[in-house]
Amino acid sequence: MERPNFKSKPQLLAWLLCDAVHIDPGSGKHTILGVFSNIMAKHFPVVHPKMVWFMTLTDVSAGTHKMRISMGVDPTQPKLLIERTFESQGPLVRINLISEIHNLSFQAPGEYSILIEIDDEPLLATSLTVAQ
């Protein structure tokens, strides 16, 4: 019996904003440092010097894929922050994507919408609170 040509839809297992990710060279284990869910600032505009956006995906079909992360105050017009390709060995493999963002600027307090897309398909729409 021939299997149908099935392309799985990527699934998001983890999405974290943090200060850093350390990968142990011996075991390959990831240590997530300084997880946070909002940003507090005393004055605006403010620049966040460095953050890491960590995600784990599964059910990604074999081959090359494109990940994009956009963010903005207006969810209908987010600004592209990250665009990168990655490889999947198949849908049973878990893929950790680590993206460092330097000098991210916030002009005013508010709810900043974040959109994550894989191969031009929305995977997650969430927000980051930036407050005074």
With strands numbered from the N-terminus, the spatial order across the biggest sheet is 4-10-9-6-7
Largest sheet: 5 strands, mixed
Q: What low-confidence regions span 5 or more consecutive residues with pLDDT below 50? A: none
Categorize the overall geometry.
Answer: globular
State the end-to-end distance. 62 Å
- Secondary-structure-derived class: mainly beta
Q: How many domain units?
A: 1
**CATH homologous superfamily (4th level) name:** Immunoglobulins
**Secondary structure: helix percent:** under 10%
What features would you highlight for this structure?
single chain; 132 residues; mainly beta; Immunoglobulin-like; 5-stranded mixed beta sheet; 3-stranded antiparallel beta sheet; 10 strands; 0% helix; 64% strand
Blueprint of the fold:
Elements: E1 11-18, E2 20-23, E3 30-33, E4 38-40, E5 46-58, E6 63-72, E7 79-88, E8 95-106, E9 110-118, E10 121-131
Parallel strand pairs: 4-10
Antiparallel strand pairs: 1-5, 2-3, 5-8, 6-7, 6-9, 9-10
